[in-house]
Amino acid sequence: MVAAVLAGLSLLSLLTCGYLAWGSRRGGAREAPGNLLGEEPAAGAPRSQPHIIFILADDQGFRDVGYHGSEIRTPTLDKLAAEGVKLENYYVQPMCTPSRSQLITGKYQIHTGLQHSIIRPTQPNCLPLDNVTLPQKLKEVGYSTHMVGKWHLGFYRRECMPTQRGFDSFFGSLLGSGDYYTHFKCDSPGICGYDLYENDNAAWDHDNGIYSTQMYTQKVQQILASHNPRKPIFLYIAYQAVHSPLQAPGRYFEHYRSINNINRRRYAAMLACLDEAINNVTLALRKYGYYENSIIIYSSDNGGQPMAGGSNWPLRGSKGTYWEGGIRAVGFVHSPLLKNKGSVCKELVHITDWFPTLITLAEGQIDEDIQLDGYDVWETISEGRRSPRVDILHNIDPIYTKAKNGSWAAGYGIWNTAIQSAIRVNHWKLLTGNPGYSDWVPPQAFSNAGPNRWHNERVSWSAGKTVWLFNITADPYERVDLSARHPEVVKQLLRRLSQFNKTAVPVRYPPKDPRSNPKLNGGVWGPWFKEDEKKKKSDKSKGANKQKKGKNKKKAH
């Protein structure tokens, strides 16, 4: 009966929402049709350049906020969200680097070359230097730009560092994770180093054993105290919490002694500390005169990791997967400048949308030659209008082809289903390849002292399955696969994947470089690629070529 209802809804949505008419990728900011040049600002738009505070949590699960029913107390997040706009159809990427790169460029991974995995500490890789970043665009219109927290967009060259990508100041870590107190990180046995920076140098002076969530908050308070609130500021706060390792100050365990699962208990303490930190940031905004003209955006970078204490219930899957539990995120906007405060936005919003949205709010310009994948969604959020976004390319990863039974035949000759990919178009979502860990992990799974999968709900699919289709609006928990019932929709989405793939740039995923070892850099993770070395090598090769040419000339004579 449920399957029949879902199928009916799916067919109805196909007929009513125009899924068969695909739009092409366009240059510049992607806006709603009615937003024409020369129109007066909308009633809910800020009167002057607003202060922009973007808070990015790390690995926070979809359920891990009070207003989503969590047993973990988050009074600050609950209050800010209740007084602002909750984003309940909001998507990010399933891992750290991809979400951060899309936030800062407004582009899908296939358009930056970062479509495979994350940037590893030992890889000579970073966000491509030819991509204009959000802080660079905000600086053009007079913003002071500051970053506090986790970078994770590469650092092998000095040009890749945050201060070279548009931030006036940077205080935080370059890697994806590390000890919350010592700030040391081992990538593999013997490859270990210190990872705390102030601008372009190791911040040894700040190595006082302070828990990173609290240390980053103190830095934010200092920045706000020293800046003139009459001048616009962009503050990007990328907290390390609640990413593993699971560490928290002892006092935050007080309310969670009853949680037997040690990972969940530690995770709860970390989230409680993060909630308090955001309260302190909000108080500082009020104290120093920023709040009334500020926009606070809160987002997780990906879904939670159940084995590390996170919960995405009732969504399917986890961090690192393209099931909803990996990509549907906690998110909200809090601002006195919102028109419809205290509302819930169920329109489609993606992390790439912040780039054009914030630049437009800042009265900036988006060059026509910048091929963005994001849309300006401020009117959607502030005024409750329809979202200009109708689709999301979750990703196409041509390197991840672990679905052994995938084939062109399974993709109707349109797409090789061995390739890991996922796309959302209106209510439809299509996955191909191996989407990753697919269990539903209910709260009961955390009831025991150790990891327990007995409570998990699992789905066994027929051997060789490499295509799934869901109506996400009717079935947000991805319980009823409709791919066999609607092959015509599957074909349309496969064609859309193929269209996107034609615009993809080559994947950037180089092998590790032994020169990255912190032992060769004073015990610190940091830039190791020297431009001078490259010039010397090229000069030597040029000299050798000249000598060869000279010898050849003599032989000719």
TrEMBL record:
Domain Sulfatase N-terminal: 50-362
Protein name per Swiss-Prot or TrEMBL: ARSJ Arylsulfatase
GO molecular function: metal ion binding; sulfuric ester hydrolase activity
Region (Disordered): 505-557
Biased composition (Basic residues): 543-557
Cofactor(s) demanded: Ca(2+)
One of the Pfam families matching this protein, by short name: Sulfatase
Signal sequence, renumbered to the chain: 1-23
Sorted UniProt keywords: Calcium, Glycoprotein, Hydrolase, Metal-binding, Signal
Amino acid composition bias (Basic and acidic residues), ranges on this chain: 529-542
Keyword Kinase: no
InterPro entries: Alkaline_phosphatase_core_sf, ARSB, Sulfatase_CS, Sulfatase_N
UniProt record similarity statement: Belongs to the sulfatase family.
